[in-house]
User: Fold this.
Amino acid sequence: QLQAILSSDGGGNSLNRETFRQAVVNTLERRLFYIPSFKIYRGVAGLYDYGPPGCAVKANVLAFWRQHFVLKENMLEVDCPCVTPEVVLKASGHVDKFTDLMVKDEKTGMCYRADHLLKDFCKEKLEKDLSLPVEQVAEFKHVLAVLDDLSSEQLGAKIKDYGITSPDTKNPLSDPYPFNLMFQTSIGPSGVSTGYMRPETAQGIFVNFKDLYYYNGNKLPFAAAQIGQAFRNEISPRQGLLRVREFTLAEIEHFVDPDDKSHRKYEEVVNLEFLMFPREEQMAGNQAKKIRLGDAVSRGIVNNETLAYFIGRVYLFLTRLGIDKERLRFRQHLANEMAHYAADCWDAEIECSYGWVECVGIADRSAYDLNAHSEKSGVPLVAHEKFQEPKEIEKLVIAPMKKELGLEFKGNQKKVVEALEAMNEKEAMEMKASLESKGEMEFHVCTLGKVVTIKSGMVSISKEKKKEHQRVFTPSVIEPSFGIGRIIYCLFEHSFYMRSSKAGNEQLNVFRFPPLVAPIKCTVFPLVQNQEYEKLAEQISESLTGNMISHKIDVTGTSIGKRYARTDELGVPLAITVDSASSVTIRERDSKEQIRVEIDEVASVVKEVTEGQSTWADIQRRYPAHSSTTVDE
Amino acid sequence: QLQAILSSDGGGNSLNRETFRQAVVNTLERRLFYIPSFKIYRGVAGLYDYGPPGCAVKANVLAFWRQHFVLKENMLEVDCPCVTPEVVLKASGHVDKFTDLMVKDEKTGMCYRADHLLKDFCKEKLEKDLSLPVEQVAEFKHVLAVLDDLSSEQLGAKIKDYGITSPDTKNPLSDPYPFNLMFQTSIGPSGVSTGYMRPETAQGIFVNFKDLYYYNGNKLPFAAAQIGQAFRNEISPRQGLLRVREFTLAEIEHFVDPDDKSHRKYEEVVNLEFLMFPREEQMAGNQAKKIRLGDAVSRGIVNNETLAYFIGRVYLFLTRLGIDKERLRFRQHLANEMAHYAADCWDAEIECSYGWVECVGIADRSAYDLNAHSEKSGVPLVAHEKFQEPKEIEKLVIAPMKKELGLEFKGNQKKVVEALEAMNEKEAMEMKASLESKGEMEFHVCTLGKVVTIKSGMVSISKEKKKEHQRVFTPSVIEPSFGIGRIIYCLFEHSFYMRSSKAGNEQLNVFRFPPLVAPIKCTVFPLVQNQEYEKLAEQISESLTGNMISHKIDVTGTSIGKRYARTDELGVPLAITVDSASSVTIRERDSKEQIRVEIDEVASVVKEVTEGQSTWADIQRRYPAHSSTTVDE
Assistant:
């Protein structure tokens, strides 16, 4: 019901969204899917534990990710440390640019995110001050729209103009200044070697490019992958489980020839059709539309086949986990959102009670990262394409005559040599012509800050034909990056529903997890407390363990209806009730339908359904229905 | 061969050990099992990446750990953050005690572990100075034996006495001082909230005890488990892959009634027999001996059944991974190694080229951790045992009369009240007797530092019989803690061997991983480069992917023998060679024997062997042998 309200509602009705969220979050916390970390010490904002069922869901999601991406695509998985030396993150740009703007309460020193304060102020004005003049309404709406693009100075000016003060004390605030979001530490005992907890796992892959390329037989394309913890020291974490200070990322770096971004398996995704939200549609104020992936590529909406292939694979991944495909869209980055080097970028956004949430980013980052690390480390991170037969290539050769230049320019010789060598083709050919016709030429040497005269005999300039055996280039990288915690949280919201108890006096919570994701695959209940049934339950439990099926026995004397309700709340797909000496009933969570199965077949039936070889409907056809529902149901 | 030398050698022949280690480590690094992290930036001591095959081995080991422990025992797995606030690690003792003693080069500031310098000095003297007088030999040997027990002052004195200087510069050294091995950071932007990267995963479980106990239906015993990264900012990492600054731990905290440490499944391990090294045998200078686990318990060598159960399960875990049971021993901690609160502690030690290495610690930590967090947080971390019927218990009741005490002692009233309430039974009964007979009694109040006179009417003391419905107690915890990286490294050494190539001109490297551990389960080779065979290889690859079997295709024109050698070096158990249009050969890595199998049966045969349903011998019985070995083999 709440969901119906939610999905029919474009986002305006925040009260219902919050009621729904509270119902989900209460269930999640009560059943230990999540626990605020270090709770007995009052916790730390932005840190959460996964309790037993949450941890099992996470393990299932990661196992499926490995299967769906690493195994299916033969990716090279690596596992790098979280502690990262400064030089790596200097090269990647994180040390200089991974910042949020912060303001401080000038008296207490409390810190706030500058954009949050401005956002809250504008929103409150718009919501509460109904007498606001039209121009002001327009102004506040404009500020909200461009919030992410405001510079430090612009943010500071707005905060001053609007007279925004510290929300807790009403004290004046400092000007905004950048706060680096990396957790900083020190490696080793000397205190001089700065390190950071990695903000993403990708850099560990980039710095290993050379070895991985070699491992792959010096062939492109190939993909490397990594699952691991990443860290972000948020100024003031909000949005509960969506914005946390430590989280699990699963990242893929697919390295490809920039001149050939086709994909071998592109045909497998070409007919998928789902909600896409191209840049142009966003600018025009339209909604996301269903587009066939193949059309998006042929119409030039998605930049290339490889990018499209991963968009398609991400769609399959998320929907197989149980994400509602009507509340999943792929949104293209606007020009101003995208880094200058990026060729194209799409986010898989999932709608939940917080609105549309970015859960997977799929970016064509071109050669940016490899170039940055090549430059900083001095180790060329490049690929080679061997030509079938050598190609003839004309090459400019500039050979300064060091002896002659030395005699003429003495101590300045080196700088003149360097300037000559740095000439581009046009400059060099002009000089060649001038030297041949006039015997000399005026030449500006930047590093000396003056013009010198170059005479013939001081430099030899020629064009030589050379046979090249290979092309050397920096690969482009296409990066699908998965925020595992966000995906799981959205999955919880999409899987949650409430239904009335049989007596109608209670609302019961259910998670409709697919078996793939379900933290526990089945429960085993003796119908009544007696030794015979408990022994049979034990026996079934052992055969389930033997089949590697995670399950839970509940031998409490609680009514069977209550036990079903408990297990529905954990999203357990099947419940086995031992109610005779030879056979049991198996109940499916969502339909509440039951079948009767012999005891020695139980484990294999559960295995078939939970491992996906058969559906519940298949199984129902093979086994008799059990209709005598118990009193409690 | 090297292994034979190694295992027949008690530890003296360090040269052969190092040759062997070099052969293993070279292979591991060349095939990217490991990569020194951030290699293009010259790396960081003590940080390593797992490259593709290493990462796959690690994933397999962790999956098996989950199966063998979490699933089989229905443990509650949790997943807590690495970033930990100071208060938690203050309570656990890590802020004050997780230190190593360090000395600094007084001129350059370079840091060294004090015990390392002393150890190196003594070892070098003993090895190189053959003219050393007997007393000196005895002294240096003694120092080596007690190294771990030396205090900061004792270490400093020895370093001064022996004139030990900085190994790099020969400069004088500072006195030893403690260096905390936790990576420190700051949580949030204010800079006032200190955090550390966790040194172990256990604390995340302890602080959640209350919730987990509730989740388990308020029943003991139960176990919680966690797999995750832990951090240790080593002063100067040595021993390559064994002592690193970031590593994966897998920890179990089994909570049990201190009055009943029996284990439900104890019978399953009671007949296991393996190398144990009890405290007494170590003190007597003996070797580890094979002991039946049941005997170790009944003879009082192992403290209790639960501890023994886990020792047995750890033995099964390690040997199933491929650890050689002749080079695995369980060593009991000596009295001086064990924390004062520990009831008993055993390390699973694996012998490798570095000697015996602690890989798993199995400790009965009694109630220490839960008590520490109860005290610090004020939240009682206790269990309850409900009595079948209420028990009658005599309880001392001391009731100070606050009004009377106030009139008499004014501002000191509160301290007198507290002192009265703090009396033990004996003191209270004496006072009761005295007040009844004499009407008053002299009473020493520590907090006031003086004696006061207590008169009858100021306090009522009585013994009351009370019905108790439950017993409240702090559970003991038995903790098996696995250093996953160390286990994997030892596994690499135990799995490695060399054999001659067929031509006899080359030594080839092989890892004899069991299929469970093998990073890649099989390889697919077209015998010669032609379209038909390559297409068949692709087809086989697809059916392997469909069966979730990790594999690798090698379509290079390299000789089949070289391709076998490459794959043996990665420890791939089976190699499929496509040499006809209808059937292929499957070759087993260690025996090099081959069978012939129809193409459409290949995937199921590989699945059977690699998932452990059949052995290679079983399969050999069912399929014809293929004897025409190729020229290269």
Notes: DSSP finds 22 helices and 28 strands in chain B. Confidence is low (pLDDT under 50) at residues 1-12 of chain B. Chain B touches chain A through 81 residues (CB under 8 Å). The longest strand of chain B covers residues 383-400.
